[in-house]
Every structure is written in structure tokens, then in C-alpha cells.
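[INFO] parsing input record for CAF17 C-terminal domain-containing protein
[DEBUG] input buffer:
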Amino acid sequence: MTIHLRADRAVFRFSGVDAHKLLNDVVTGEVPVEAGLAAAWALLSPQGKILAEGLVGQADDAWWVDTHQSVADDFFKRMKMYRLRSQVVIDDLRETNRVGFAQDEEPGFVSHTDRMGSIGLGYRTIAPLEATEDWVQNDVHYQNERIAMGILHQGNDFPANDTFAHDIGFDILDGIDFAKGCYVGQEVVSRMKHRGTARRRPVLVAGVDAPAGSTVVAGGKDAGIIGQVVDGRAVAILRLDRITDPSAVTINGKPVAIALPIWATYKFGETTPDE
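[DEBUG] output buffer:
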């Protein structure tokens, strides 16, 4: 059994008769009702920008939600506000539980398949703090896995209230349920889908010798920035229309190699209609 600690993740548990409805009404994704599956979600601003994102899965008559530590306070505050008079208990488990990554399901813990669209990232594992002493105390293996797949994470790759759900591929990775009714930011999400105005998309970058936040230059123009760098690789959110020659892309004047994720339905050089 090998579980890698993801120390930058915060855990919340939603329980009560209205717990599923509350979550499903306010986040972008379809909140699963079956146990064992974790689905991607984002909480948006009225302008459609991501305020928080993560995974949600059901176990033990509750929904277990993780998000980045940097936005956990704001997420907790907003969810308590959205709760109103609903019969929902929201437990802040940041002091008592930890999130981990495992290649296989770990019995005895809260374990969910981490699947985004066609991409599988093993299992999200949640356990009491005292049960995590034997875990690998870093998440380098997980970060390598998700970067190779082109999966972006808030806090690691982009800040809060800066990025649209389409920018991180949530429309392709099942992080958006387009059949749902109105949630905060839903009008912006729907408009980007129906008008085809998603200009920025996840792109794999290799040969990186620069820190996260460095600018990617294509054709003499800034195309976007890279996220967390692990072993010279990163995922960037780039303007596709500015990448007319994928072999001529640089960071800090040094050439880098770029490629599209295996799940991408978009292409380099694509242009979009004006919003």
C-alpha cells in the first residue's frame, strides 16, 4: 500500500437530507450519488471565474469535498452562506483529516476513483490524521501524473478568481454539467460553450527551466503562463490563436516543447469569434 500525502488539500464533509441538492445546485459538475466515484467541480463567481475547485464523492451517507488550502476559508464561508435553511451539516475536517493519492483503492479509508472525462488519476483517499503517518510525505508522484495528463489545479497552476472553467478544460473533462439548471456563473459557462469563445486552453510544456508563473511566448507575443513545474514539465493555459508554429515557443528566451493533452478536442492556431 502506497499513499502519497497531498498536504495542500483541505477536506469538507457535507451531510444531511439536502446535502446532495445543495452541492449540485451551486457547483459546475454533476455531483455523483453512487459511492466510489469522485467527480470534478468548480465554484464560480458571477463573472464565471473559478473561486474554488476540486473533487466530490459520496461515502457513508455524506459527500466528501476537497479543495486547495489557499481557498478553503472562502469556500467554507460561501457554502455556509448558500446553505441558508437547508438541512445540511458542513464539517470542516482540515484539522482532523488528510487527502492522499493512491494507484489502487485503499480499504478502510474514504476512497474514490479520480476520473475526469477519459482520464484516470488513481484514487483520492481521505483518512484521519493519525492514520497517515505511514504515507509518503510528499505528492511529487501525483503532480507528475496529473501534469503528464494536462490536468490543472487551482493554487498550483492558477489563482482564484482569474480563470474560466473552459480555460482548464472542464467542459471536456466532465467538470461541467451542461444539463443542469442555473448556478452562479452558469450564464458565462453556457455562453462560452454555445458561442465557442474559449480562447485559452491547457497545453503541455516540456524542457522548462523557469518557475511557475513564467510567460510563454509564441510568435513574439505572450501566449500565457505556466503552472507548477515538476522535473522540467508543466501545464500552461495558453491562447491557441497565438500558437501558429508550435516548434517556435519560448520561455525566458529559451525554447520549450509544447503538446496538446491526449484528451484535447482543440488545436493549435484555432481562432474564436469575438465574445
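[INFO] The chain has four helices and 16 strands.
[INFO] shutting down worker
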